[in-house]
Amino acid sequence: MKKIRNLVFDFGNVLLNLDMSATEKQMQALVGDAYNFSAERNAYPAFFEEYEVGKISEAEFFAGLQQMQPDKNLSAGDLKAAWNAMLLDIPPARLEMLERLRKKYRVFLLSNTNKTHIDFVMNYLRRTHGITDWDSRFFDKVYYSHLVKMRKPGADIYNFVRADANLKAEETLFIDDNAANIETAAKLGWQTILHDDGRDITKVLQDF
User: Residue ranges of the alpha helices (H) in the chain?
Assistant: First the structure.
């Protein structure tokens, strides 16, 4: 294994705790117990991916969700609350870890995400941790799919990050909880860790 100089983190289920079932439960409260959020995402993959790569606006996204349940008269506000319910917390130990790592490595964030979720997390960081400079304080640079107009596991986003940040693949460690995302990075020569979200990332990196 060559010397690691660059660390690239996924966001959800690596740094940010998630609970997808919380969104499922809130949607069921709005729509009915038979509602299955995962099935809906699988039924309309292009729609959700378009929001993750910034092809549709926040207003268009929630209008689309309303149209999927035309008989329920759902408000955009209720849908936004349900959509954000999956976002939990970032423990202080992970923030401390990132600050320590930046003293020795170049540190980056690469996330499939969307405007609604990022706005929510930035508000959470400000309210809970007093952090208003997340992107620059903890990372050399962040790459959000809805801003760079690409998403994992497409090779294009990895190649973009590598070129933009001037990374050498063999000196870069990528940590993600999604096997498909890890597979692409590995094929491109990045070193990788497939993260088990049952373990804390601070312990994973200590062991590594």
Answer: 20-31, 37-43, 45-52, 58-68, 76-84, 92-101, 115-124, 134-138, 145-148, 155-165, 179-187, 201-207
Task: State the pTM of this model.
Answer: 0.95
Tokens 């609970």 sit on residue = 19
**pLDDT (tens digit per residue) in 150-169:** 999 999 999 999 999 999 99
Token duo for residue 15: 């740094």
- Quote the CA–CA distance of 128 and 206 in Å, as a whole number: 26
Domains of the chain, each with CATH number or no CATH: 6-18+89-207 (3.40.50.1000), 20-84 (1.10.150)
Q: Report how far residue 108's alpha carbon sits from residue 6's, in angstroms, rounded to the nearest whole number.
A: 8
pLDDT higher than 80, residue 1: no
According to DSSP, the residues that pair with 111 across neighbouring strands are 144
Determine contact, residues 163/106, Cβ cutoff 8 Å: no
Q: C-alpha distances in angstroms, 4 versus 29, 163, 187, 195?
A: 47, 17, 17, 17
Q: What is the DSSP letter of 170?
A: G
